[in-house]
Amino acid sequence: MKFLQMQKKQHKGKHDAGRYLLWLFIAVVIISIVSLVTTAYSSEETSRLLLDSINSSEVVYFDYGSHQLREEAYPVLDKAAEMMIGENGLILYITGYTDDRGSEGFNLELSLNRANAVKDYLLTKGVSGENIIVSAMGKNEPVNGNSNDEERALNRRVIFSFNDPQNNTGKYAIEKFPGRRFYAEASLKNEYVNSLIKVNSRNEITADLSIRDSAGQPVDSIAVEDISAVLRWENEGIRDSTEGAPRMIPINDKKKIAFTLTMDYSGSMYGVDSIAKDIPKSDKIIAMEKSVKLFIDQLGSNMFCKIIKFGVKVLPPLKFTKSKNVLYEALESNSYPMGATALYSSIYTALSDTTFQSNPTVMKTVIAFTDGMENSSVRVTLDSIYRKSAATNTKVFTVGLYNDVGDYKPDFNELVRRKADMLSIARNTGGFFYQASDPAELKKIYANIYDQVLKSYFISIVWNSAKLPPKGTQVKAELKINVKGITRVLYKNYTMD
């Protein structure tokens, strides 16, 4: 009996051991599979976790007129630094902002200083400067109306966002957090709407809207139901408002279009520091000219165009023309200025053309191209460009080509400044910024801009004249556009006529 019991125990022990070994084998297989999956997706999941973890801590705030970091910013930035270290493929985008007080130039510089203050702190924590891209927006894109001290405090900020190009977390972030400012690409922020808003009369404002999706493609599916507007003011201590009635007019039904193409022939485009007329065209110049020629090829019968060439100086431009042959001849001209880069002057020259100044049926657009940074303009500033753009109701689209050749090798800070300038010019004039890392990309960019202009929207907002404040009252127009479920608000401050 004891023998039988002992045999049963031995049998049970063998059975338990076998079962244990079986489960052990299964566990090993499962762990191996999980390990493979984890290895395959660890980078992507890590990036997603990073994005999730900064969901509530992507903003740092600043005191009025200051770019000094507050004490409460350090824990937020320490967390960002911890995320960045060891993640070599992760790019951190830092963007500075201000409230609405001060000039455009002052605020642009202040917002850049704030963004650099964040960057400098991260550098002290061991983050590589090559993984950081800084930009400045000044007082553009406020999160609210800047109507009081509390609202202004929220606009004095620096935001930062991550993008892992290898694992496309930029796309993931936009899908997961569509209202946040993550990047789809380095050059294409989640910016959907830009516009020049013009005050036509006491009871009407108009806006030329340019709208694109997170992939940089023009959006042509906006209806009047997607647009709303409200006018706000304060009179004798009492706040009031009135809603506006929007009216949408297709751009081609309303206007002719006048394009000015500014083209960079500075030394960096040739890859040389000297000036010599017999230097052959570089691949960059050839690609630029081919792209512009293709742009000219597709100009419609209702379109005018002219070309402005610049380098160390701006060459006298030809008059606007509909003749493609005249434009081809201007394009092929051998008058190449070379030397430094008078970028600001070239754009200001384009904006200063008076041909269509008194003709409201002509939509004026400048396409400004460069591979360098402003270093040659005389008495032309970003402020003067913004003012001239507003005065002439002219949009500026900017194109930057950043693949340097030959002897000219800019440092990292110059590369950042190039992009910051071009981005700021576009955002402050109603256009968009495009960047190319290869000359072959220019063809696609110019085609995109052409498409973007043709798919613009001309909006008229009429206020209820019976409910407008007295003459001389400071008012703020808020124009809301719903794009694919995301509401973008544009502001216009002015004095009631």
Describe the protein:
The protein has helices spanning 2-53, 73-84, 104-124, 149-155, 169-176, 251-254, 267-270, 283-297, 324-332, 343-351, 382-392, 412-428, 442-454; strands spanning 59-61, 91-96, 132-136, 157-163, 193-201, 204-211, 227-235, 238-250, 256-264, 303-310, 362-370, 394-401, 433-436, 457-463, 474-483, 486-495. By secondary structure, the protein is α/β, with parallel strands linked by helices. The chain has a 7-stranded antiparallel β-sheet with strand order 5-6-14-8-7-15-16. It has a 5-stranded parallel β-sheet with strand order 10-9-11-12-13, with helices on both faces. The chain has a 4-stranded mixed β-sheet with strand order 1-4-2-3. The model is unreliable at 1-14, 21-57 and 164-190 (pLDDT under 50).
* Name of the CATH architecture of the largest domain: 3-Layer(aba) Sandwich
Q: How many individual helices?
A: 13
H/E order of the elements? HEHEHEHEHEEEEHEHHEHHEHEHEHEEE
Largest sheet: 7 strands, antiparallel
Terminal Cα span: 112 Å
Q: Rounded to an integer, what's the Rg over CA atoms?
A: 28 Å
Annotated CATH homologous superfamily of the largest domain: von Willebrand factor, type A domain
Average pLDDT: 78
Tell me the layout of helices and strands.
Elements: H1 2-53, E1 59-61, H2 73-84, E2 91-96, H3 104-124, E3 132-136, H4 149-155, E4 157-163, H5 169-176, E5 193-201, E6 204-211, E7 227-235, E8 238-250, H6 251-254, E9 256-264, H7 267-270, H8 283-297, E10 303-310, H9 324-332, H10 343-351, E11 362-370, H11 382-392, E12 394-401, H12 412-428, E13 433-436, H13 442-454, E14 457-463, E15 474-483, E16 486-495
Parallel strand pairs: 2-3, 9-10, 9-11, 11-12, 12-13
Antiparallel strand pairs: 1-4, 2-4, 5-6, 6-14, 7-8, 7-15, 8-14, 15-16
Helix pairs in contact: 8-9, 8-13, 10-11
